[in-house]
């Protein structure tokens, strides 16, 4: 899944300085060096900032040393948000900075562009989002710690059928992730006996969803399966959904996106109609999540979401790999160590599948409810050990 967030926050001078380097330079052999490539500014800056804040939260909880070596993060801002720039930055980190790991990569085109660099340079590469199915097959040096669109949307389809939904109308933004989610939902839902009675792929740039919502209402489904970017698109869709009185018509709304607190708040009372599935909510009740959210809030001043947690899990994989190799990061041995590795994540136990190098982890279904004056995702079902697209 690739969820697009439209961040209006200014990109501060602190992060600009960090784009040069996270820590004071030291001899490479004394360090474990992570080359981090992600948008840290511009329209997608919330992605990279969320990853980076989570990486810092992990280091706050577990220290800046592992296997006897200091950990250095070298930050590169893919501010142009283009695959060519992501490739160039990764190449520089691999050849000039001699990093041990590449990490980050919010968008699928960026991760795909870097796959050839990872293979040629033999750099273990930790993808922290880029959710298109089959991504890890593009290089034997790529592992993904987030999720795939198939994991979230197929889980939503299973939950829907399990809870009596039989007729669904799909509405997705017309780009790779939207299509990915639509296809996985349809395949899984129909395999169980459900029926897709219609669907529309909506222009990614458009925020006028009223005609599509009306079309869906006229089809009289039990539910709509929706995938649009968080932020302005979701706000606009929820406005159309309520104005067209679909809640009163009994049409459920099911999504699979990031419901971080900062994206729920702007939805206001319309948030209560969302049923969502994804790999992480800040409301999960486990000790590691309590540690993570406390550290993240201290650093970022807000709660993390499903995208940001990839930075925390990515650092956990790097640290555990370093421990297994006693700090000696040989690329092929590192990838062998990553295959099947188990980490303690804020989302629950997480395993990297030894065959696909993708995650095997819980997927959570949540309904947004008002608790103590604010809307929050409340988990209503858990699907355990979900693998990519299954």
Structure keywords:
2 domains; Peripla_BP_I; 15 strands; disordered N terminus; BCAA_transport; globular; nine-stranded mixed sheet; Leu-bd; alpha/beta; Rossmann fold; 12 helices; 390 residues; 24% strand; ABC transporter substrate-binding protein
Q: What CATH architecture label of the largest domain applies?
A: 3-Layer(aba) Sandwich
Helix count?
12
Strand content range: 15-25%
Residue share in helices?
25-40%
Number of domains: 2
Largest sheet: 9 strands, mixed
Pfam families: Peripla_BP_6
Organism: Noviherbaspirillum pedocola
Keywords: Signal
Family: Belongs to the leucine-binding protein family.
Structure commentary:
The chain is α/β, with parallel strands linked by helices and 390 residues long. The protein has two domains: 13-147 and 284-357, Response regulator (Rossmann fold), CATH 3.40.50; 150-278 and 363-386, Response regulator (Rossmann fold). 37% of the residues lie in helices and 24% in strands. The protein has twelve helices and 15 strands. The protein has helices at 13-18, 45-62, 83-95, 108-121, 149-162, 176-191, 210-218, 232-243, 261-264, 287-300, 309-324, 331-338, and strands at 31-38, 65-66, 69-77, 101-104, 125-127, 142-144, 167-173, 195-202, 223-227, 252-255, 274-278, 342-345, 348-352, 359-371, 374-386. Strands 7, 8, 9, 10, 11, 12, 13, 14 and 15 form a nine-stranded mixed beta sheet that branches. The chain has a six-stranded mixed beta sheet with strand order 2-3-1-4-5-6, with helices on both faces. A hairpin with a 2-residue loop joins β2 (65-66) and β3 (69-77). α2 (45-62) packs across α10 (287-300). It is globular, with a radius of gyration of 20 Å.
């Amino acid at each position: 899944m690739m969820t697009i967030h439209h961040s209006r926050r200014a990109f501060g001078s602190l992060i600009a300085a960090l784009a040069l380097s996270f820590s004071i330079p030291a001899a490479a052999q004394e360090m474990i060096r992570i080359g981090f490539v992600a948008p840290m500014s511009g329209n997608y800056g919330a992605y990279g900032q969320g990853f980076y804040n989570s990486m810092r939260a992990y280091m706050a909880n577990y220290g800046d040393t592992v296997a006897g070596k200091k950990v250095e993060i070298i930050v590169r801002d893919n501010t142009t948000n283009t695959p060519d720039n992501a490739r160039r930055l990764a190449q520089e980190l691999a050849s000039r900075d001699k990093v041990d790991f590449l990490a980050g990569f919010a968008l699928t085109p960026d991760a795909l562009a870097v796959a050839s660099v990872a293979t040629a340079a033999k750099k273990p590469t930790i993808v922290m989002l880029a959710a298109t199915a089959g991504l890890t097959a593009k290089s034997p040096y790529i592992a993904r710690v987030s999720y795939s669109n198939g994991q979230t949307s197929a889980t939503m389809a299973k939950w829907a059928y399990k809870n009596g939904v039989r007729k669904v109308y799909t509405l997705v933004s017309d780009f790779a992730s939207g299509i990915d989610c639509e296809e996985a939902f349809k395949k899984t839902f129909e395999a169980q006996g459900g029926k897709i009675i219609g669907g529309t792929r909506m222009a990614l740039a458009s925020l006028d969803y009223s005609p599509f919502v009306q079309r869906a209402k006229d089809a009289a489904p039990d539910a709509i399966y929706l995938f649009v970017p968080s932020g302005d698109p979701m706000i606009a869709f929820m406005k159309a959904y309520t104005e067209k009185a679909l809640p009163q018509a009994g049409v459920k709304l099911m999504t699979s996106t990031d419901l971080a607190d900062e994206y729920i708040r702007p939805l206001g009372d319309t948030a209560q109609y969302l049923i969502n599935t994804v790999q992480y909510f800040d409301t999960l009740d486990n000790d590691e999540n309590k540690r993570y959210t406390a550290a993240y809030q201290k650093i970022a001043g807000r709660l993390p979401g499903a995208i940001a947690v990839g930075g925390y899990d990515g650092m956990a994989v790097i640290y555990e790999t370093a421990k297994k190799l006693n700090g000696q990061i040989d690329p092929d041995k590192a990838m062998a160590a990553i295959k099947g590795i188990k980490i303690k994540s804020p989302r629950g136990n997480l395993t990297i599948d030894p065959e696909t190098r993708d995650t095997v982890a819980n997927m959570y279904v949540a309904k947004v409810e008002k608790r103590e004056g604010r809307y929050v995702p409340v988990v209503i079902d858990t699907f355990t050990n979900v693998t990519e697209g299954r």
